[in-house]
Amino acid sequence: MVHGFRGTHHGLQDIIDNLSDFRIIIPDLPGFGDSTPMTERHHDIAGYSEFVEQMIQKLDLANCVLLGHSFGSIIASEVAAGSHIPIQKLILINPIATPALQGPRKLFTQFAIAYYWLGRKLPKKAGEALLKSKSVTLSTSALLAKTKDKKLRKHIHKEHLTHFSRFQARETLNEAFMASVTATAADHAAAITMPTLLIVGEIDDVAPLKGQYKLARTIPQATLLEIAKVGHLIHHEAPKQAATAIAEFLR
To answer: In the prediction, which pLDDT does 104 show?
Structure first.
């Protein structure tokens, strides 16, 4: 499994807890969580894709099932579309199918570009304080969460506060952010030949539904599951539904 931007392996735990019959491996992407930054590659889609490919090779996981969430969907799609690694099946949760600068949150994306640029340009202490700001994290979490369940919203905010700031360096964080807003899972969709499951949220305004259906039509063997009343946090707001769909798809 490949987690989303500014996430760690912890982010997909709610889904993992409902998939006890499977062997699941999920790394922290380079530069996030406990993984150090890459030294010979940029933190862009090509660099992250090579990291995933090398990990699959070194762990002898050929013919595995590859899953990507959000930003991870872009990376997983590029790996699946390449000819280097045989992937049995592909699963994309909240896939980024619409370019960030063209979607409904394009103004928010412009603000985010300025935010990450400022976080990199300020003196180190001030820049890191801005990038790790709890108020910014909570504001972002509140925008992403669609559930009205107070207990679940509290859980989501706690997860973001705990893991959202676990990046290794602001320079590599900025590289990863720029990759997240300039690439999509649709970039190589036509070359994805294995059976693919798309799990999408009905009210996802980060990855709008229209783009998800277009992505599903582009991938030759795609199946799309739309989860009602859920946005970009399927892994938190509908983990059981996602896990059930994944298990059925793998059977």
So the answer is: 65
